[in-house]
Design a protein that fits this description.
The protein is an alpha/beta fold. It has 13 helices and 9 strands. The strands form 2 sheets. Strands 1, 2, 3, 4, 5, 6 and 7 form a 7-stranded parallel beta sheet that branches. Strands 8-9 form a two-stranded parallel ribbon. The chain binds zinc ion.
Length: 354
């Protein structure tokens, strides 16, 4: 970046910051200290911390409440839930952690249009990273009518699925919405939530889009045409989201970017930002414009720097996606939209007034 041009505004629609905290990672440390204090694990080398978000001009993050179901072998956590009450308790702890960061003056939780506007207009040196709270996997909502309570507590986006939840089929867990899941759609809509379709099993995905009439997104999902697993979106699913003016966030996990990438080796390989852009371009081609693709890096979602594209060392390097987007024919405006403005447009439309 030259000194004359200010860095682009980045919005990252998926970071499991509270869960990283549960794993013992200190979000406030600088990246060198964080890495030095993180024991080697399957989670890999960390890439996300507050100083790096600030350095990369990441102005808004969709920060998740994610809790691990004990029954799922893929849940990478020593802490997990057996019951809805436990899921709720653990998710509340994560929400309270975000509140603590806010009370300490480190971040700002964004819940409405007025706060978003104020946040984006803040030009002071002390401006903060804004968090929009996203619940990933709806088991902490103990029964559909409890959705409203989570909205009142500040959650603005709900993705009902992860693997299977009580509400829906999910990744590696095919099937439709359950009876409670169908009820939940009405409660999410009347409460004013944005629906995150990431992780839905295909049948549940279409059930949800039929029953939920509010704003829909896919905070973090890539294209199944390149990476053929049920975790990614088919072309029809991409069209279903973008035709409702929904935005889809590209995930920076090599395993989701390139099926030939060897995740056993856990070393940097030839996956690059050009591969990320290939997915983003495909979403844009299906949508017919470049207003519906954006970033949902998932950078602390169970993988480390070893499993990300070559150009990336930390979350600050999302800025380096810009040249790869330009190479693929994105105009300067398209680049700004893909890095952040497309998500801001969703929030400006979908958040409550005040
Ligand atoms: Zn996820």
């Amino acid at each position: 970046l030259s000194k004359s041009s200010s860095p682009s505004i980045v919005v990252d629609a998926h970071e499991d910051i509270a869960f990283a905290h549960v794993l013992g990672r200190d979000f406030l440390k600088d990246i060198t200290q964080l890495r030095a204090s993180t024991p080697k694990s399957d989670q890999g080398t960390p890439t996300v911390c507050l100083p790096e978000l600030e350095k990369g001009n990441v102005r808004v993050v969709f920060a998740t409440l994610w809790v691990a179901p004990c029954h799922d072998e893929h849940a990478p956590s020593p802490i997990c839930y057996e019951t809805p009450d436990e899921a709720k308790a653990q998710a509340l702890d994560e929400l309270i952690y975000y509140r603590k960061l806010e009370r300490e003056g480190r971040i700002r939780i964004i819940k409405n249009k007025a706060q978003l506007k104020e946040h984006l207009e803040d030009g002071s040196d002390k401006r903060k990273v804004g968090f929009v709270i996203l619940m990933e996997g709806a088991d902490p909502i103990r029964f559909p009518k409890e959705a409203k309570e989570w909205f009142n507590a500040g959650v603005r986006i709900v993705g009902p699925a992860w693997s299977r939840t009580r509400y829906s089929g999910g990744t590696r867990a095919p099937g439709p919405l359950t009876k409670e899941g169908r009820e939940l759609m009405g409660e999410l809509e009347s409460s004013g939530f944005i629906l995150d379709t990431s992780h839905f099993a295909e049948e549940s995905f279409y059930d949800a889009l039929d029953l939920f009439h509010g704003p829909v997104i896919a905070s973090h999902a890539n294209c199944r045409v390149f990476t053929p697993t049920d975790r990614q979106l088919s072309d029809d699913m991409i069209r279903a989201v973008t035709s409702r003016d929904g935005v889809i966030g590209a995930v920076f996990y090599n395993k989701f970017l390139d099926p030939n990438w060897d995740d056993k080796k856990k070393i940097k390989s030839d996956v690059t930002f050009a591969t990320v852009v290939k997915h983003m371009k495909h979403v844009s081609d299906l949508a017919g414009d470049k207003l519906h693709t954006a970033i949902g890096s998932d950078l602390d979602g169970g993988f480390g720097v070893e499993s990300t594209p070559m150009e990336l060392d930390t979350v600050a390097d999302i800025q380096k996606l810009a040249p790869a987007l330009r190479d693929a024919g994105f105009s300067e405006q398209d680049v700004q939209n893909a890095l952040g403005r497309n998500w801001i447009r969703v929030l400006e439309r979908a958040l409550p007034e005040s």
